[in-house]
Specification:
Blueprint: E1 2-7, H1 23-39, E2 44-47, H2 60-70, E3 75-78, E4 81-82, H3 88-101, E5 107-111, H4 118-121, H5 129-143, E6 149-151, E7 159-162, E8 175-180, H6 184-193, E9 196-199, H7 206-222, E10 233-235, E11 239-241, H8 245-258, H9 268-274, E12 278-280, H10 282-291, H11 293-296, E13 301-304, H12 313-338, H13 351-358
Parallel strand pairs: 1-2, 1-13, 2-3, 4-5, 5-8, 8-9, 9-10, 10-13, 11-12
Antiparallel strand pairs: 6-7
Length: 359
C-alpha cells in the first residue's frame, strides 16, 4: 500500500506568531517537505494546482521536476491537475516530459479544483465543468495512447494528424487518478477507463465517501475491469500528532480555528467527529486510519495533509518524522495482514519503477 502526503500550497499567516511566509519561502519549504517525505520512507508526494492567492502551486510540473532531480524513490503526483481549464494537449506534453525526467516515478490526479473564478481566467464556463472534465480527459487518454490523433469536440479546436511529444516513457502513460469530493460523474469516469478513484475524504462525513467509493467499485466491475474489490481506490486525510492527544489538540487548535478553509466554523471537536480529521496521538491516527477500511474496503493509496493552515516548516517536518517512524510502519503491516488475496496492494506503477523495487 502507498502512503504519502499532499499539499494545497496555501500561504497562510501563522496565528500563533502573526507571521506570513513569503511565496518564495513557501515554495522552498514545499521542496523541503517533499525531500523529508522521501527521507522518512513515504511513497508519494502530491501537489495541488491553484492559480490564485493565497496559493503558490500554479506550475505543478515545474515543482515536481525539481523534486524529481533531488529524489530517487518518491512517486511524484498531483492532488489536482485541472482537467477543465488546462488544455489536454499541454497536459499530455508536460506530464510525459516529467515522466521521462523522473524515470517513470509519476502519476497524476485529474480534478476540477475548488476555485470557481479559474474558469473564466482560462476562457471556460464553470457551468460546463463536468462536460469539460469528460471531454478533455477523453482527448488526453487518446493522446497518450495513439501516435497520430484526429479529434473533434465541443470545447477546443479540432486536431488532424496530431502527435503529442514526447511520447510516454516506453509507450506507457502515467497512471491516472480521478479525484472528487462530491461528483458521481467523476467516479463514473474513473470506472469507465479503469483508472483510479481518489476520494478527497476531508470535508465530508464517512457516509458520503462510502457511497462514492461504492459507486466507483460497482461501475468498475460493470465495465469489465475486474471485481469491485480490485478497483483502485485512494483516500485523503488530515492529521496532526503529538506524543499525547492533549498536547496535539492544544497546539493545533489555533491553526484550525483560523484556517481559511474551515476556520470560524464548527469546533475542532465537531469537525474531528464528523470528518476524518484526526488530531491526537500516533496511536489514535493509526486506529482512525485503519477504520477507513471498514467503509471503503481495501484500498491502495493513503495521502495525508500535514502542511496547511500556517503551520511552520519545523512543525511539519516533525509531523513527517512521526508519520514515517511511528505510524506508517504499523499501517503497512496492519493493512497488509487484512488484505485478501487477489486485491491489489498498490496503485499501478510504471514498469521501470516496479523493476527497481524488485531489485
Amino acid at each position: 500500500m502507498q502512503f504519502g502526503i499532499f499539499t494545497v500550497g496555501d500561504v497562510t499567516t501563522d496565528p500563533t506568531t502573526g507571521r506570513t511566509p513569503t511565496e518564495h519561502e513557501r515554495i522552498k519549504d514545499t521542496v523541503a517537505i517533499a525531500l523529508k517525505a522521501e527521507e522518512v520512507g513515504l511513497d508519494v508526494f502530491a501537489t495541488g494546482e491553484h492559480h490564485n492567492p493565497p496559493f503558490v502551486p500554479s506550475s505543478p510540473t515545474t515543482l515536481l521536476g525539481h523534486i524529481a532531480a533531488r529524489t530517487e524513490n518518491l512517486i511524484l503526483s498531483t492532488s489536482t491537475t485541472l482537467i477543465t481549464t488546462n488544455d489536454p494537449v499541454k497536459i499530455a506534453e508536460d506530464y510525459a516530459t516529467l515522466q521521462h525526467l523522473a524515470d517513470g516515478r509519476v502519476d497524476l490526479m485529474m480534478g476540477r479544483g475548488n476555485t470557481g473564478p479559474v474558469y473564466p481566467w482560462f476562457g471556460q464556463d464553470i457551468r460546463q465543468g463536468i462536460p469539460l472534465a469528460i471531454e478533455n480527459y477523453a482527448l488526453l487518454h487518446k493522446l497518450w495512447r495513439e501516435d497520430i490523433v484526429d479529434w473533434e469536440g465541443k470545447f477546443r479546436t479540432a486536431l488532424q494528424g496530431f502527435t503529442s511529444t514526447p511520447r510516454p516513457l516506453d509507450g506507457i502513460p502515467p497512471f491516472v487518478w480521478h479525484g472528487s469530493i462530491r461528483s458521481p460523474e467523476i467516479a463514473e469516469q474513473a470506472a469507465y477507463y479503469g483508472d483510479g478513484f481518489f476520494a478527497n475524504h476531508i470535508f465530508w462525513p464517512k457516509q458520503h465517501t462510502e457511497k462514492m467509493v461504492r459507486l466507483y467499485r460497482q461501475r468498475y466491475a460493470h465495465y469489465g475491469h475486474g471485481t469491485p474489490e480490485q478497483a483502485i481506490v485512494g483516500l485523503g486525510g488530515q492529521i496532526f500528532m503529538r506524543k499525547n492527544s492533549q498536547d496535539a489538540v492544544r497546539e493545533f487548535r489555533p491553526y484550525f480555528d483560523n484556517a481559511p478553509v474551515y476556520g470560524h466554523g464548527p469546533s475542532l471537536e465537531e469537525f474531528s467527529r464528523e470528518t476524518p480529521l484526526t488530531v491526537g496521538s500516533p496511536q489514535e491516527v493509526i486506529e482512525r486510519t485503519l477504520s477507513f477500511r471498514d467503509y471503503v474496503g481495501d484500498y491502495q493509496r493513503q495521502l495525508f495533509l500535514v502542511d496547511h493552515a500556517g503551520l511552520p516548516l519545523k512543525t511539519v517536518l516533525e509531523q513527517l518524522d512521526i508519520l514515517g517512524e511511528e505510524v506508517v510502519p504499523v499501517l503497512r503491516k496492519e493493512f497488509a495482514s487484512l488484505r485478501p488475496a487477489g486485491v491489489p496492494e498498490t496503485a499501478p506503477l510504471h514498469p521501470s519503477v516496479q523493476k527497481k523495487l524488485e531489485v
